[in-house]
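Entry type: protein chain
Record version: 2
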Amino acid sequence: MDKFFGIKAAKSTVRTEIVAGITTFFTMAYIIFVNPNMLSSTTSDPAKYWGPIFIATCLAAAIGTLMMGLYARIPFAQAPGMGLNAFFAFTVATVYGYNGALAAVFISGAIFIIITIVGLRESIVKAIPQNLKVAISAGIGLFIAFVGMQNAGLVVNDDATLVKFAVFSLKQEAFPFEPLLALIGVVIIGILYYFKVKGSILIGIIACTLIGIPMKITQLPEAITTAHFTDNFRDWTQLGLFKMDFGALMGDAGGIFAGVLSILTVVISFTLVDMFDTIGTLIGTAKQANMLDENGNLPRMKQAMLCDAVATAAGACMGTSTVTTYIESGSGISEGGKTGLTSVTTGLLFIVALILAPLAGIVPAAATAPALIIVGVLMMANLKDIDFSNITDAVPAFLTMVMMPLTYSIATGIGIGLISYVLIKLFTGKIKDLHILSIIVAILFVIKFII
């Protein structure tokens, strides 16, 4: 095992890797419930489709994550991506139907595989300016912390200012225990992390789950095993497995030209968002873990990209939306996960979740939120590497960083950063700083934003 994963060479241990994998799983386990809820809501029979999509979600996550561990041998987990699943359900599926949307995802996955094999995706990563790579890491830190605060109710919606802090007034009918629990968790993990306690983030998640019981936040399941698993599996083979409908993509879209343009728009959207979500996550979290080489590139990046590409195509075959690399992987990496054993542990737990999903569901969002917030704190340390004295680098880096949480999209943050980088360098006469691929990608993002 040590020889295969290189655990000692990475200055890690089997225990550390396993704890890191468990931490990553519980931090992102919400997807096995959220994804079926979202995707099934747009089908003809939500109740009947929920089970098959649940199975597809677990299997797609397991396939992608195990590939990351066994082939790329890096500590990143994959699952159907949030945001991408909303685009799939509420935009694409409403036009082409659920099975037509699966076909679009499969095509985008096939494109991923081709451009990864020829090395284009890896070249794009290398073409991203160093300052933007640093900004991506810091931006993901802000984004992941914002997601944690939102999940716990620490940051809530406000019609006047868009967001505001949770109200802790005792005059309320129902005191907001979720955000309180999250703050307690941040303090617990912060203290444990200071004293270098092994497994501090996982301990914090477990502690918050237990504290959440008297607060009536943690809901103990009535059963340990997944209800109606046999029926769900049968329905999955009939409704989800290899049910892509390529014919539905053309449909009646006002002629062949309009149909092709519409399909291209969908596929380009899937392609750009998934590709740059993955690139951003890999670069950002790997930098925080000091996994990048002297040129700011991730060793075995091509293998990681291929895992993501194959997982996207496999996810479509399973019956779910685009599979992508999760920013929650940062929680396991912050626990010390450095090798593929972390991913293998997480992937195996997704298989276990097929049968024991209620156990994974015990952990409330308010218990995993502190882990995301702490990871965000750790990732902000990369800001010191940005050269803010050079305004042509500082502005694109700043935009990359802040646009991720503000637009709720890693890909959008990278897109805005690259576009501004190209324009500023171009009009300040610093054309030599521009890479041709950076210009091409910036143009593609402009097209995507316009379409």
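Comment: The chain has 19 helices and four strands.
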